[in-house]
Amino acid sequence: MTLDEFVKVVANEFETTPVETFNAQTHFRELDEWSSLLALSVLSSIDDEFDIILTGGDIRKCTTIEDLYNIALNK
């Protein structure tokens, strides 16, 4: 799992936010589209794509997609 692959998986869960908005430093929770339902979708996609189980608590600790990636690496 690379950081770029991880960013793509997260970005794919957003329906209305342009894909070019996303990079490792994107503050994903500050995007207008962000919601608790989207958080669940992101967690599910990470599990499906990388077989890594993250929690809502993990997301709450993060500011950027790279922060979430670093937590995923340690799981």
Question: What can you see in these coordinates?
Answer:
This protein is mainly alpha-helical and 75 residues long. The chain is 52% helix and 0% strand.
Question: What is the topological layout?
Answer:
Layout: H1 3-12, H2 36-50, H3 56-60, H4 65-73
Task: Give a short synopsis of this structure.
The chain has 75 residues and is mostly helical. It is built from 4 helices and no strands.
Q: What is the N-to-C order of secondary-structure elements (H for helix, E for strand)? A: HHHH
| Net shape | globular
The low-pLDDT segments are: none
How big a fraction of the residues is strand?
under 5%
Mean pLDDT: 96
Largest sheet, strands/sense/barrel:
none
Number of strands: 0
Number of helices: 4
Distance between the termini: 13 Å
Q: Mind telling me the C-alpha Rg?
A: 11 Å
Structural class: mainly alpha
Q: Which percent range fits the helix content?
A: 40-55%
Essential attributes:
75 residues, mainly alpha, 0% strand
